[in-house]
Amino acid sequence: MESKTSSPDDLKDLLKKVRRLEIKARGLTDQLFAGQYHAAFKGRGMSFAEVRNYQYGDDVRFIDWNVTARFSEPFVKVFEEERELIVVLMLDVSASSGFGAHHRSLRELAAEIAAIVGFSAVQNNDKIGAVFYSSQVEQFIPPRKGRSHFLRILRDFLVCVPAHSGTRTGVAMEYIGRVLRKKATVFCISDFIEPSFSDALKIASRKHDLLLMRTTDPLLGQLPDAGLIRLRDPETGETRWLDSHKKSVRQHWQDTWHNHQKKLKLAAQRYGVDLAEFSSDADVSRPLNQLFKSRGVRR
Fold first, then answer.
1. Which strand (E) or helix (H) includes residue 25?
2. Nearest CA to 164 among 132, 201, 195?
3. In order of start, what are the domains of the chain with their CATH numbers?
4. pLDDT of 179 higher than 60
5. Who contacts 18 (Cβ-Cβ below 8 Å, separation ≥6)?
6. CA atoms of 74 and 54, how far apart (whole Å)
């Protein structure tokens, strides 16, 4: 098996991509998500531990008014249960993650979502790790703290060339169950275009705080009227011709996609797992904002 080496230009391009991701993600984290992340993924107990500076999105009920008045800036109370988290990013690197019709690819979309979640975790002093998977686990990076560690995760994700082309999220969930002894907050980012993984989802959701983050592209759910077109499945290599001019063909395509989405939503609801949806032609801030807020309200 030949080893691949990167040229200096390739490395420069990679570093530029990572730097752009960091600048954008940290800007959003500082402005929008720091306090919301903390509220959404930290438990609250009755034993007071300390106070810290108020962050946008924090629950105003926990403002310490005495300390706030003393220092002329808002502080909030932190309770004993608010310990550091173990955060794990389950990232789909299968062949379909390279799909992108008119916008960024699903891999690039996933990287942006992961960057915001990751830098929120870094700012909160949480440990963060990653699992890259296709139909098998391709790489596991154990959870550690710090910016440099997370930057390594981003770099490895962007350049990961999987040895397998398919998608089996259940395999990655089973792997997480074996390697992580402590409860973790697991963000699974994938297009989830695969057979059902309901059984693995049921088991994983019992042990970990699991969130599904589906990446999609407008073309996946809406076949354009473009006449006779040749399609190739990037994961199986199978090719087929479709007459997209026929309304019945376009309708069947749309119905199949909606049924697939419905099954995933029902499975997530059945096992109490949060599901957020992200499109390659839209900003990631809104669905992340909705996710963090809804979890913060429930806690």
1. helix 8-28
2. 132
3. 44-79 (no CATH), 83-298 (3.40.50.410)
4. yes
5. 151, 154, 155, 158
6. 5
User: Where is 248: in which H helix or E strand?
Assistant: helix 247-270
Task: Decide: 79 and 47 in contact? Cβ < 8 Å.
Answer: yes
Tokens of 265: 């939503």
Q: What is the pTM of this model?
A: 0.79
| Overall average pLDDT of the 54-80 stretch | 86
C-alpha to C-alpha distance for 287 and 213, rounded to whole angstroms? 10
Q: Which of 201, 191, 185 is nearest to 299 (CA)?
A: 185
Pairing status of strand 239-243 against strand 228-232: antiparallel
H-only helix segments in 85-230: 106-123, 147-159, 169-179, 198-207, 218-221
Indicate the DSSP class of residue 124: T
Stated as kind and residue range, the H or E segment containing 294 is helix 285-298
Residue pointed to by tokens 């376009």: 250
The answer to whether 81 touches 154, Cβ cutoff 8 Å, is: no
Residue type present at position 149: H
Q: In sequence order, what are the residues at sequence separation of 6 or more whose Cβ sits closer than 8 angstroms to the Cβ of residue 148?
A: none
Query: Residue 94: which pLDDT band, with cuts at 50, 70 and 90?
Result: very high
